Amino acid sequence: MTDPVHFAPWTCCAQAPGASAESAAVQGDWFAAEVPGTVASALRARGQWNHQNPPDVDAQDWWYRTTFEAAARAADEASALCFDGLASLADVWLNGELVLSSNNMFRSHRVDVARVLRDENELVICFRSLTTDMKKKRPRPRWKTNLVNNQQLRWQRTSLLGRIPGWSPPVPAVGPWREVRLECAPVLLTDMQRTASLVGHEGVVSFRARVASSMKIVSARLLIAEHSVELDYEDGVLSGELRIQKPELWWPHTHGAPTLYASKVIIETKAGQHEFPLEPTGFRSIEVRNDHGFAIQVNGERVYCRGACWTTNDIFRLGGTVDSLRHDLTLARDAGMNMLRIGGTMTYESDAFYRLCDELGILIWQDFMFANMDYPVEDAAFAENITIEAKQQLDRFAQHPCVAVYCGNSEIEQQAAMLGMARERWRNRWFGEQLPALCSQHHPGTVYVPSSPSGGVLPFHTRTGVTHYYGIGAYLRSLRELRQADVKFTSECLGFANIPETEIIDEIMGGLMPVMHHPRWKQRVPRDTGAGWDFEDVRDHYLRELFNVDPVTLRSFDMPRYLELSRVASGEMMARTFAEWRSGHSRNAGALVWFYKDLWPAAGWGIVDSTGTPKAAYYQLKRAWQTRQLSITDEGLDGLHLHLSNETAEPVEGIVEVRLLREPNVSVACHEIALKVGGRSLEMRSVDEILGSFFDVNYAYRFGPQSHHVVIATWFSAEREVISESFHLTCTRDPVGQPLTAEMLGARAEALGDGRYQLTLKSDRFLHNVRLSAKGFLPDDNYFHLAPDRIKTVSFSPCAEGSRALEVYVEALNVTGEISVS
């Protein structure tokens, strides 16, 4: 029977811990539950989830059940129940017989059930109370962490999401969070290992898998595009190696095309041919230069890694649909991100996630799911459990060229060091020896980092190894200290409480007027547990620095203005930081912003909100992350420097223009030079050099009143098309001005087809942080400065299918009011 077996709708119910030991004794209030899914997702679907007063799902046992038919199964077919993820303490019964017990959310299980199957079947799963299990007496840890409330979580192989009080929604993972299926077929392929590597100019694919079949295997072939090789078959195992001369390489999208090859295995039996599609294959080399730093090279080329830390597409289901994943990952690619990190406080992602990253050309830094705690790796049962977990995940990840870096854990070395532990206690044998050996064996050609952060005299020092940099952010340092910090690579950084759009604020407040001290709002502002401040305080600090306003006074008397300035303040700090890190003065080789996407509607760390809508910070970073990039750094008494980066292989011949502007539209000076930027290179020029005389461009000498307020640097192609543009504002103030009118701003919208529109803007004056709002549409740029008489085009894509006319509201920080364009 090769057709999929369909389960009847699942139901679930809660019971007191230990009330029922076997499936036959369960009595309760059964209700519908989606699988894959969690108890939380089932309760939400039933209208019984409240973030303000969430149920304690860890405190109860949760029972799931379904039925299915297997009458059409042939007697000689292999039959296996497959569980891709059970969170977290689970017992499974098929037709009243216990067939599986699992205590690891991150392991998959394949159970031979041919003996137990009937024509009509009942499948029952019990998820035991984690709270009850953690009351068992176990050895104490060598240190404790404020990250979680219950230190016994170190014994549990489950996600910390939902169990971190400082920043996670109270939505712990309990239930069948990954697919449950019955596989019945004449031939089944299991325990597959496939790796693809570059050896010189050869692409080498190694393959190994077990075959479950009662039929005689006549032959088997591995096919990679038009290339194929016969596989050896012995003792139920297929194995072989395929070599391809000079394959097209897989690149991160910022540096080339992410080329993939279709892959499959064909097995011949006397009864016919059986085809098994595999994940597409890509060939790339990954190396790291770690001479006091950490710089990644792909296919021999140094890659500046920028992006963010991935959370989850859906905190309730811990996965999300393929469509929602594609939406979020495409946004990341379009922003110029070429790396995402999956941190140790999250979960391993789905096959669809890695498949999409392969396709989109996004590198993955993959933590194993360990964070901050003193895990009992010397306990034999625990060690065996995590070894199987690691092998399973590595065999899965090895099929994806996007996976480039493995990291043993998140902040364990930092936690131990900050608590004053001796150096020999920072890293145990599991993270220092055993796990890297498994990575090398199961996924060769990748990089291993024992802990994030690590590598310095202290793990969190910024000048060596991999760091977590919150100097700009939690530690309230100034931009001028960035060179002193000399960050080489930061695998998480720049955490700010980023203000979302109005719709999300309304959802948080439930229609109430937004006030930052309201419990509804403050519940969702991220904080470090035990600290007397939160990340809204951090944002307020930089709001004061950027706009010379008092945040408390502003939000007390003018909340709309407070929100307007706060929306752009955090992104402005991030963009200026990346301008420094990508400059010719910096030795930084990569930086990943802490949180790509919020876990719930909030002013969270995410640069994208929980619905997948970009915040202001997303657009500000998008302009700082492009493949061909112009940025400005403030060099104090040396004026301003321009940095032109070209990551493509082809040189760019163009023009660089510098314009000094006194608001609203007086041009004080304007000069340009021709400049060629070679492939994979960076050019640096002084603004004073381009202008040819002294203008005190950054108002460092202050000999008199400012002659200009804005420096506009534009990189044009030879055809005079804008490649990249950057602005430097010479004054610190709230830029409020006169009312915006249609005479100030020419705006026109036109349909492009497929529901898309293009908006063309042209202003007679400088506009500060133009904000575009269009219900039902997503702009490809927003929160941008607009130079006088410069034509700006913005494309709008519909957020959902269906015909809807575009209506855009345009506003800016240095004018009042808005105009409508339709």
Report what the structure shows:
By secondary structure, the chain is of the alpha+beta class. The protein folds into five domains: 11-182, Galactose-binding domain-like (Jelly Rolls); 186-281, Immunoglobulins (Immunoglobulin-like, Sandwich); 294-622, Glycosidases (TIM Barrel); 628-729, Immunoglobulin-like, CATH 2.60.40.10; 745-821, Immunoglobulin-like (Sandwich), CATH 2.60.40. 18% of the residues lie in helices and 32% in strands. The protein contains 15 helices and 43 strands. The strands form ten sheets. Strands 25-24-23-22-21-28-27-26 form an eight-stranded parallel β-sheet, covered by helices on one side. A six-stranded antiparallel β-sheet has the order 2-1-3-8-5-6, with no helix packed on it. A four-stranded antiparallel β-sheet has the order 10-11-15-14, with no helix packed on it. α3 (322-334) links the parallel β21 (305-310) and β22 (339-342). α3 (322-334) packs parallel to α4, α5 (380-397) runs parallel beside α7 (429-442) and α13 runs parallel beside α14 (616-622). It is globular, with a radius of gyration of 28 Å.
